[in-house]
Specification:
With 453 residues, this protein is mainly β. The protein folds into four domains: 79 residues, no CATH class; 157 residues, Jelly Rolls; 92 residues, Immunoglobulin-like (Sandwich); 78 residues, Immunoglobulins (Immunoglobulin-like, Sandwich). The protein contains six helices and 32 strands. The strands form six sheets. The protein has a 16-stranded mixed sheet that branches. It has a five-stranded mixed sheet with strand order 26-32-31-28-29, with no helix packed on it. It has a four-stranded antiparallel sheet with strand order 22-21-23-24. The longest helix is centred in the N-terminal third of the chain and has 12 residues.
Length: 453
């Protein structure tokens, strides 16, 4: 009788491994010789609660001293020791790899895989990844970036950013030149390592404290501000993010065609055509680092008022691809459309007002990708050699955009032309030339100048 009751309990308590379960359960592999008791000692905050493992798994025995066969068990994350709780790779695009702690090899990362304390995550070009930690903290890793994930601890929750950029909420970030400490649970910020290993921190929501690596100085960065920290230097006084300041001065007039290949023009004054969907997006996305655009289409306005909207098209478009409703294969006629911004941490903003849309009116969707033009006039090649210690880099940028060379801002004239004289050291000198649009999207061009005596 007791065995029958135990069997019924196990069947009732077992949870299939799927999307819903993965949010609350962590998978644990049984090693040779493991028992319920040894697993509890290793994984649980309270080893005496080994019966919790019984409730969520089908086991051949309930005796905590009997060795278990090789299998995968599922344990509630709330019961696991804080430093052993796994993060989950909830989304990835293209080529993302990971490396287990204390191992040399990189392997292809898979969506829904678990990442532990000390594991490294790396994105290649045109790739990105989003990780969710226990408690809801989210990390989004930009293309060509690398971070080491550290398990959350009460006094030491942080991520080590080795290169590139990441977007985070309540997780602390350590870079070669700075420490970032979010203040409050509603903070959203970006940390980016520049070519000279200095760190730029932009806060889009809430606030964060930024320190030098030795903790000698701390500056409070509020929403809409940024600071920079150079190696062995103090953080600069926070100032307003330039692309947010300039948001009201820009207008989108064309559509980009691909990743890093946008031909969008930005001109002074005005905005997208009044009443268009582009105008709605322009208003919604100011100051928001955009990851995607959620687009919903219905035949009638009233179809959106249902508890479950009746839609003929529902899709998220990556921020680097054009919104193309032709793929919806809509019949000729009139429809209603609404759009929402999905930020880099996966949070969806409020829906735009409903807009009337007639098939063939693709010009309403004027957005996406890098919203501007960045041209390098001199040097016009990726690598050049010179025999003088000074060189003037020149170029042109869309009016109203922000230009930085190795993290230092360069001002453009009223026609968008800019120049900067740089001092060269012997050998190769690398320059990262970067332009930012009103939505925080960047276009980056690298130039190398070899100075020979």
């Amino acid at each position: 009788m007791r065995k029958l009751l135990l069997g019924a309990l196990l069947l009732a308590g077992s949870v299939p491994w799927g999307h819903a379960a993965s949010e609350n359960l962590q998978s644990v592999k049984v090693r040779p010789g493991d028992t319920l008791w040894s697993l509890s000692q290793r994984w649980l905050k309270n080893p005496r609660r080994w019966n919790v493992i019984l409730r969520f798994n089908k086991l051949p025995t309930s005796d905590p001293t009997v060795a278990l066969p090789g299998m995968t068990l599922f344990i509630p994350k709330t019961e696991i020791k804080a430093n052993l709780r796994a993060a989950t790779l909830v989304h990835k695009k293209s080529n993302v790899v990971f490396r287990k702690k204390n191992t040399p090899s990189w392997k292809s990362a898979q969506t829904k895989m678990q990442l532990y304390d000390g594991d490294a995550l790396r994105t290649r070009k045109k790739s990105w990844a989003r990780v969710k930690f226990f408690g809801g903290s989210v990390l989004s890793l930009d293309p060509d970036s690398m971070a080491i994930l550290k398990a959350p601890r009460p006094d030491n929750r942080y991520i080590v950013l080795k290169r590139g950029a990441l977007h985070a909420t309540v997780a602390r970030v350590v870079t070669p030149s700075a420490r970032v400490i979010p203040v409050g649970k509603d903070t959203k910020y970006t940390a980016r390592i520049l070519d000279d290993l200095s760190t730029r921190v932009q806060v889009f929501k809430g606030k964060a404290d930024v320190q030098d690596t030795k903790g000698k100085k701390t500056v409070r960065v509020n929403a809409g501000q940024y600071t920079e920290v150079k190696i062995d230097k103090m953080p600069t006084t926070p100032v307003r993010i330039p692309n947010i300041e300039l948001a009201a001065q820009t207008e989108l007039s064309d559509l980009g065609t691909g990743v890093g290949e946008s031909v969008v023009r930005v001109r002074r004054g005005g905005g997208a055509p009044r009443g268009s969907i582009a105008a709605e997006l322009e208003a919604l996305s100011v100051g928001v680092p955009v990851a995607a655009y959620a687009v919903q289409v219905a035949r009638k306005r009233s179809d959106f008022r249902r508890a479950k909207p009746r839609l003929v098209f529902d899709k998220e478009f990556d921020a680097y691809e054009p919104i193309d409703l032709k793929q919806a294969n809509l019949r000729d006629g009139q429809y209603w459309v609404r759009v929402a911004i999905v930020d880099l941490l996966g949070d969806k903003g409020k829906w735009s007002a409903l807009k009337s849309y007639r098939t063939g009116e693709e010009e309403q969707f004027q957005t996406l990708s890098f919203q501007g033009v960045l041209e390098i006039l001199r040097p016009d090649e990726e690598f050049i050699e010179v025999r003088v210690p000074r060189y003037r880099i020149t170029g042109r940028v869309g009016i109203g955009l922000n230009v930085l060379i190795n993290g230092e801002r360069v001002r453009a004239d009223e026609d968008g032309y800019w120049s900067k004289e740089v001092f060269l050291k012997k050998g190769r000198n690398g320059f990262r030339i970067e332009a930012s649009d009103v939505r925080g999207n960047d276009k980056i061009v690298i130039r190398n100048i070899n100075y020979r005596l």
